[in-house]
Give the backbone structure.
Amino acid sequence: MTPRRGGALLACALLSIGLLVATAASSAKTTAVPSWCGPKKIKLGFTDGFGGNSWRLVTTASARAEAKKCPNVSSIDYADGQGNTQKAISDIQGMVAKGVNALVVFPDAGKAMLPALRSAYKAGVVTVPYRVTPGGKAGVDYNVFIDTPFAQAGENWGRWIRRVLPKGGNVLMLSGPKGNSQGVEENQGLHKILDPSGKYKFIGEQPFEVTNWDPALTQKVLSAAIAKYPKIDVIVSDFGPSLVGALPEFTKSGRKIPALATSDGNVLGCFWKKNVAKNPTFKLYTVSTQNDHARLAMDWAIALATGGKKPATTHFPSLVFEDSTTGKPNPVECKANLPGDIYLSAQLPAVAQAKLVR
Amino acid sequence: MATVLVATAALFAVSLVFASSSVTRGTLLTMLPFASALAIASLGQTLVVMQGGIDLSVAGGFSLYVVIVTKYPAGDNSRLWAAIGIAVLAAIAAGLLNGFLIGRMRLNPIVATLGTNALLFGAVLWYSAGIPTTTTARLARVGGGTWLGIPAPVYFAVATTAIVAAVVKLTPAGRRFEGVGANETAARTAGLPVRRHRSAAYVWAQLLYCLAAILHAGIVNQPTAYEGNNYLLPTVAAVVLGGTSLLGGRGNIVATAIAALFLSQLDQFVLALGVSYATRTLVQAAALAAGVALYTVNWRALTRRIARRRPSTVAPT
């Protein structure tokens, strides 16, 4: 849901009215049934490895909203593994025992989840893991794995960096825990685009500075980097909102905030709006945080279980969301009256997200 | 206190020589607020350790207070004071629970505070569902702001350290508190209410964690729901480096605060060295081990033993 600025207010108002009408009328009145929704009636299960943050809440709500588009989904059961692999496994077994026909799984624990996925698949449940690879093979251990190529985000950032810094420059990349596959793949994508020109220098620990996606550590890491490197031209980070507390370190050191290629979040957009006037070098480019990845997984699971038309791809792409330099596909967005912890790149309307995280 | 003071001065000297970027104005402005919050939380831990206890519930308590002061106002400055009030009440409740379990029921402090910690984390998840909330603008101004060029949290840390040290070292109540920690039997014989002192330590500790958490929420704009986890080990480390015996007794209040500064600068120093994450962790662990060894190893006995052994270790080749 990303209304252009021109009619943003109007669109929002219309949308809220639309939502009210939609909820007032019964859900049976949904307009067109999507092609992936087949004729068979099914019960659907959805298990999460860890549900306790705003990104997960929005993602779960997005998945539910997607499933509700298909009237033949008679029930949706959700279970949160709460970061406990054992619980995540027994959640899957519980869903199978309850007799769900299709199961969408966010297998946070990776390969540890494979046996549970396999047993669900062998029990005849349409099993669709997504986002975190559980290993194994489609058609043997589960029906299909819906992935996202993290390298693509790195490539998107790389292309933007070449555009805003055509003369080259120093690139500082921040990611989560040491060696996390997301950060490693993003870094590879970044190198693929930037290396051929030979004009970009990667500074700091390689492949990325370790922040554990923890805002306090991010703050310390960034201030150390600022002191160490007199010239940082662009920061690349795969968790934009965690930088909001850290970017003022530049101001504290009497420097301007540099360009930033990252992922979106309402709090980040608002931070940009507040600081761009005093920091002309602060250009912002975001890719979507991909809450809608869960929607593609839902489409697949429902299509396979109800006998609907399969979606065209099993890959959820990295989508560019905001670019402060061109305003395309969107200018930087900020909904100051809504919580910072929502993601305007998600299809789920901002107001609905705000209700979730409040 | 001399030891930790010398160690800290030495660390700053080493920082200046080997990683001068860790002592620039910008990095100091980042490090000092974190050091301040750690110092205040460590003072709480010191009070508990002085009573021969240990408080593992600092992680849960700290996280809970961060969540309360960010989620309750949810960006509305006018609700900040109320949020702080609620956090203080929660701190008193958590402290009383610890105090009751350890002072009255005589449970082992490790077991009791571990249990309380789980309860407090339960409260964190119940209240926030693990969802972080952005800090209120007014609190962010205090945590991230500077007064007269010095980060605001530093004033809080200095004032708190001064007050705690003055109360413990100069007032009759403080002397009784320390006496109870030093020798329970003697204190009981002298007619001091041992259990009440023991319980009170946990309440004061939680109140200090609460203050540290409020500052921390201001320093970090987007705190997670689990911020306290980063304070569990460092608070104990600061107490030990400060020279307070884990067996209880005399507390080195000011030394604890300086040790917190030492640990925070150590963090920043290894970051500035630009070594890999693995090396960073190793350097921190080694420095901590060296610091603890300064107090716990009986150096005189050790040198005597080595001196005695020396003749026999010279092997004929």
Q: What stands out?
A: Residues 38-260 of chain B form one domain. The two ends of chain B are 46 Å apart (CA to CA). Strands of chain B lie at 146-147, 150-151. Chain B has one domain: 38-260.
